[in-house]
């Protein structure tokens, strides 16, 4: 049976921050199955009943979705300017979802949506080097030299990017445009746009086609589907 630290469960359920949850525990305000618990290392299972100052803590089941984010949508749960956000597409889902990482407002493509904070943090950690493939429509037609620079890494914003995989998917000689596939494992701000601009080919349109082994197959813009059990296990590995 999977166990988790009590303060983490409380934080995930929205009771309070982890630090504040620890304080509630040491102050003796938390009970597990009717017994007051003051030990910070206490582990709980899903069926355990947790109460804080007499109120039962509602624990959400963990959910995971693959979402095809459209352009013109913010990768956030709310927006102070009233613009459309990714959670607007999940109004029929009762759990509180948030995106893993972000895609720019004008970038479409694959986003993972979940309420599993621990997995989200791991997936975003640079240490795990998860490949992400983007399809970029660029002005101009990149030659071998530009593609080679991308593969070796280019200097942007005072740092050099890690080597990327790059290839031309198609070209339009008449309009002088090309579709370029770029695979990176970093996640710096506007990185793909900056990399292509750095080699002289500004991005006109951008879509994230894959995230690790996950792809957009079978989805159209604005669609989502739950991840399968196998996919969730593979992500956790």
UniProtKB/TrEMBL annotation:
Q: Which residues form the signal peptide?
A: none
Where exactly are the transmembrane stretches of this chain? none
Q: Which CDD domains match?
A: PseudoU_synth_RsuA_like, S4
The chain positions of domain RNA-binding S4 read: 4-66
Q: Which UniProt keywords apply?
A: Isomerase, RNA-binding
What are this entry's molecular-function GO terms? RNA binding; rRNA pseudouridine synthase activity
The UniProt record lists the keyword Transmembrane: no
A single GO BP term for this record reads: enzyme-directed rRNA pseudouridine synthesis
Q: Does the keyword Isomerase apply?
A: yes
* InterPro entries in UniProt: PsdUridine_s_RsuA/RluB/E/F_cat, PsdUridine_synth_cat_dom_sf, PsdUridine_synth_RsuA/RluA, PsdUridine_synth_RsuA/RluB/E/F, PsdUridine_synth_RsuA/RluB_CS, RsuA_PseudoU_synthase, S4_RNA-bd, S4_RNA-bd_sf
Note the PANTHER family from the entry: PSEUDOURIDINE SYNTHASE FAMILY PROTEIN-RELATED, RNA-BINDING S4 DOMAIN-CONTAINING PROTEIN
The protein here is known as Pseudouridine synthase
């Amino acid at each position: 049976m999977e166990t988790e630290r009590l303060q983490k469960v409380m934080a995930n359920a929205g009771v309070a921050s982890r630090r504040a949850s620890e304080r509630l525990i040491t102050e003796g305000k938390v009970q597990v199955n009717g017994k007051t618990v003051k030990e910070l290392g206490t582990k709980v299972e899903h069926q355990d009943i947790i109460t804080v100052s007499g109120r039962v803590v509602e624990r959400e089941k963990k959910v995971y979705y693959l979402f095809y984010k459209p352009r013109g949508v913010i990768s956030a749960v709310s927006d102070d300017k009233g613009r459309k956000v990714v959670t607007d597409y999940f109004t029929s889902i009762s759990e509180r979802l948030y995106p893993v990482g972000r895609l720019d407002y004008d970038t479409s493509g694959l986003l993972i949506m979940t309420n599993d904070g621990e997995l989200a943090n791991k997936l975003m950690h640079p240490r795990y080097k998860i490949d992400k493939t983007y399809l970029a429509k660029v002005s101009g037609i990149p030659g071998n030299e530009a593609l080679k620079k991308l593969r070796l890494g280019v200097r942007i914003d005072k740092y050099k990017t890690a080597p990327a995989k790059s290839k031309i998917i198609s070209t339009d000689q008449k309009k002088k445009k090309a579709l370029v596939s770029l695979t990176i494992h970093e996640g710096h701000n506007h990185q793909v746009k900056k990399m292509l601009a750095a080699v002289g080919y500004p991005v006109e349109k951008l879509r994230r086609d894959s995230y690790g082994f996950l792809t957009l197959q079978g989805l159209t813009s604005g669609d989502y589907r739950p991840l399968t059990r196998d996919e969730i296990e593979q992500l956790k590995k």
